[in-house]
């Protein structure tokens, strides 16, 4: 015998109906998945949050690739066509900035969320807005190559520019990006 909050129990009944299943089978499926996650050392909430992140990344247009390959390819292109590649990354950042500006209240929170997805598992990423509206971005990726670090910083700059910010400070070196922006609008 299991007990549950009435609201939760009603939602389980609705779920069973949607799945054309019994409440008994639905509850057993839920419990089985919770135990499966626990067996992997995970909390079911963590599993769902990470799955949501993957779905959100797909919706935003991000794709998964072999990390080392991405960094090396960007470095080769950076060495051979730095000006053209810089323009591409800056313009792509601007496009994403405009995209996020149209998705929410100014788009800043949506962009911050997207950056958390984009850097998930590859780097430490910090995004802070102060009371005056200035934004600081810091990203440390120990495996970032010099070319990738530079290009990624341009992507961030382009996005924040499109969101109404002007870069006022910039420190970029292999694996380290520190940028500060002030609101222009």
Describe the structure.
This protein has 185 residues and is of the alpha+beta class. It has two domains: 6-58; 65-183, 2-Layer Sandwich (Muramoyl-pentapeptide Carboxypeptidase, domain 2), CATH 3.30.1380.20. Helix content is 59%, strand content 16%. Strand 1 and strand 2 (135-140) form a beta hairpin. The radius of gyration is 21 Å and the shape is elongated. The mean pLDDT is 90.
Number of separate strands: 4
Shape: elongated
State the helix count.
Answer: 6
CATH class of the largest domain: Alpha Beta
What is the string of helix and strand elements?
A: HHHHHEEHEE
If strands are numbered along the chain, what order do they take across the biggest sheet?
1-2-4-3
Largest sheet: 4 strands, antiparallel
Overall mean pLDDT score?
90
Structural class category: alpha+beta
* Residues in helix, %: 55-70%
Alpha-carbon distance between the two ends? 60 Å
* CATH homologous superfamily designation of the largest domain: Trafficking protein particle complex subunit 3
Assembly type? single chain
What is the CATH third-level topology name of the largest domain? Muramoyl-pentapeptide Carboxypeptidase, domain 2
């Amino acid at each position: 015998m299991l007990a549950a909050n009435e609201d939760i129990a009603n939602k389980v009944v609705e779920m069973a109906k949607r799945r054309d299943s019994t409440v008994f089978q639905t509850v057993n499926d839920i419990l089985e998945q919770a135990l499966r996650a626990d067996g992997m050392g995970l909390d079911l909430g963590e599993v769902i949050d990470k799955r949501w992140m993957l779905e959100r990344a797909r919706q935003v247009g991000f794709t998964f690739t072999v990390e080392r390959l991405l960094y090396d390819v960007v470095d080769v292109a950076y060495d051979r066509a730095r000006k053209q590649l810089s323009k591409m990354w800056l313009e792509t950042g601007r496009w994403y900035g405009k995209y996020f500006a149209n998705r929410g209240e100014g788009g800043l929170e949506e962009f911050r969320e997207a950056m958390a997805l984009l850097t998930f598992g590859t780097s430490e990423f910090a995004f802070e807005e102060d009371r005056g509206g200035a934004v600081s971005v810091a990203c440390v990726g120990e495996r970032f190559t010099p070319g990738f670090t530079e290009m990624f910083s341009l992507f961030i700059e382009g996005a924040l520019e499109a969101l109404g910010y002007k870069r006022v400070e910039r420190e970029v070196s292999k694996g380290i990006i520190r940028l500060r922006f002030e609101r222009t609008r």
